[in-house]
Amino acid sequence: MRRWIFLFFAAFAPVLGDTAQACGATSDCSLETGTYRYEAPENISSQLPVVVYFHGYGSSAKNTIEVDRNLVNAALARGYVFLALNGMTRSFEGAKNGWSVHDGQTPLRNEADFARAAVQDLAGKLPLDLSRVLLTGYSMGGSAVLDTACHSPQGFAGFVVLNGAMWTPLPKACSAPVQLFQIHAFSDTVMPLEGLSYGPVSTGDVFAGLKLVREISVESHTPDGFAVSNEMRCRFWQDSAVRFCLYDGDHTWPVDWMQTALDWFEQRFVKP
């Protein structure tokens, strides 16, 4: 009888283990500090660069992978793994998925550490190029990217922010130079350029936050170049080490913003 029980569990243990560990585009991968989903290119022949994404307030990693296919497909088409982080429930205009940004409230989680932990966990599943990890985010997710870039940028080669802003109180200074590309809607009323109060918390002035990044990342506040297209009006510092673009619109996003983000990233980090 004991031998039969042993053989039963021995036979099914691998199956149970594989099921418990399976995660990816259709199910969450779990860490001690949170969950994430990912999707990888079909053909993996070398170490893969990574796009890490903080979703907007109220969204999820599941929604990002299933609905925001323009983001995911843009990364996959260029050979990147797309890693979508899951926010945590916050009492902020209702209980929805958000991020523990630096807004003067007691932090619920260190989002920079969570993002790094997700990348390290994924590195145990896929061959990743950890020198080419791009941290991106939209809206409040963009705020989490800015917080990481300013306070704890280690482990990320570049940062791209869409319609995000630092929250008040703004830090006195950022900790280390970074490569940052910030895109913002000219008529944004959710995270307006001048900042906005949400009860006890407020978004900060977008230009004030950008100035903090410039103070430590580039040699001069004077732009060394400008670029104007039908969609965006951009200014950049130190050969686009820091780049800022405005586009016409409200709190939505340009359809090809991820493509634009990857263009910038690959110009900054061309692998020999």
UniProtKB/TrEMBL annotation:
This is PHB depolymerase family esterase. It is found in: Secreted. Belongs to the faeC family. Pfam families: Abhydrolase_2 (PF02230). Keywords: Carbohydrate metabolism, Hydrolase, Polysaccharide degradation, Secreted, Signal, Xylan degradation. Residues 1-22 form the signal peptide. Its main location: secreted. Involved in degradation of plant cell walls. Hydrolyzes the feruloyl-arabinose ester bond in arabinoxylans, and the feruloyl-galactose ester bond in pectin. Active against paranitrophenyl-acetate, methyl ferulate and wheat arabinoxylan. The lineage of its organism: Bacteria, Pseudomonadati, Pseudomonadota, Alphaproteobacteria, Hyphomicrobiales. It comes from the Bacteria. Residues 47-193 form the Phospholipase/carboxylesterase/thioesterase domain. The keyword Lyase does not apply. It comes from Roseibium porphyridii.
